[in-house]
Design goal:
Chain lengths: 233, 233
């Protein structure tokens, strides 16, 4: 049940997101939108990801929070361009915020753009940011039933990072059950179990990321076309 | 920066919340609104609280979720009346939802009403439910800087439960820093460190709860007046 005003806001957001997507398509940047609760470990996960990117890879991060620049400071230590988006109260990022920050970089050709959304399993789900895919981050310190309680994001995500698996010996959390619930909501969801502390699962994640980027390059007619134009004009 | 439509919704909510508060005042029920991220451990915390209530105490729970009756089923095992509020998508409870569920109990004279809000550190903060106080639940599996990133709820809460302290040996979390940040945002906030698994901190919490209930009875003119009316009319 969506209020007419909310519908109008969302449709305006969709329009802006389509513009962002089309520009990112042209420059061939794989863009992922990370959504999870506060404390699910999104920033630490992205920090480790940046450390593991093969040399020569170009990547950028937009990180959203209600207040503080903390996450941008943490992420910027890894030598990649990072911008903090502080929403000043809003519970989610929207396409306009992403667009204006991407203009700061003049939509440069990055291999990857990682967007860390505001910590919230609900509101960010409804806002398309122009990304290629959504990644939901669920920590094993939360409950297994989160996919059933917050089905929206698990339905829309193509990948679930089951995070902080180093804590499994100390928490009453059954990972099989969490995966079963996630697949009940979304049978196609891909799941990788990770720990940003120990590095467990990061081999699979980095391989997934590389495959996803190559698949995008191959199946993106816009990018090919843009590339041809650059080459022949 | 609040949109005029949002302001209208909030002011309508405040009107309903004032009605709920005044009824709860008359029946002398101490009402607490629990707010925290998904997976902060609100349900387990309330389960242990119900187990520890002195015999003869009357209490009820309203538990909010986007989907599922899971939490109501867990909470109802402890022999107290429980109702699930499923918001069907909304990211917070509002006063109207609370009011309609309280009518189901005909605003019975409970000693305590515990309201477990939807798992979300942002949106529930703006919606008064007619409660006496807000309790923010922060798990040590999240980051220490959550009070700085989500200042709204830490400013409004009178009590912070620093939860899952049994995990402290396994997570890079400094409780002193989290408390310092919380007090930077809200110098008056009371903090109790708890674990629903081991029971640590529940002595302090149950004592706080009892003191808070007695203080409410003593300082609530409405209740005294209502009580006098019941006694002498």
């Amino acid at each position: 049940m969506i209020h007419p005003i909310e519908r109008k806001v969302l449709s305006e957001n969709d329009r802006v997101a389509a513009g962002v997507r089309s520009r990112l398509e042209i420059v061939g940047t794989l863009t992922l939108n990370f959504i999870g609760s506060p404390g699910a470990g999104k920033t630490a996960f992205l920090e480790r990801t940046l450390q593991l990117l093969p040399s020569g890879t170009s990547a950028a991060v937009l990180t959203g929070d209600i207040q503080t620049e903390n996450d941008a400071i943490r992420l910027a230590r890894h030598g990649f361009p990072v911008q903090q988006i502080t929403t000043g109260g809003a519970c989610h990022l929207d396409a306009r915020m992403v667009e204006s920050h991407l203009w700061e970089w003049r939509f440069k050709e990055f291999d990857y753009l990682f967007i860390e959304n505001v910590g919230n399993l609900v509101c960010p789900t409804s806002y398309d940011l122009g990304e290629d895919g959504k990644v939901v981050v669920l920590s094993v310190a939360e409950g297994e039933d989160k996919p059933m309680k917050y089905p929206g994001i698990f339905r829309k995500a193509e990948l679930m990072i089951l995070n902080k698996v180093d804590l499994l010996p100390y928490v009453p959390f059954q990972p099989e059950l969490a995966c079963e619930y996630a697949r009940t909501i979304n049978p196609d969801i891909h799941i990788i179990q990770c720990s940003s502390l120990t590095g467990e699962g990061f081999g699979d994640w980095m391989a997934w990321l590389e495959r996803r980027r190559i698949a995008k390059r191959h199946f993106s007619p816009n990018h090919e076309e843009a590339h041809l134009q650059t080459t022949f004009v």
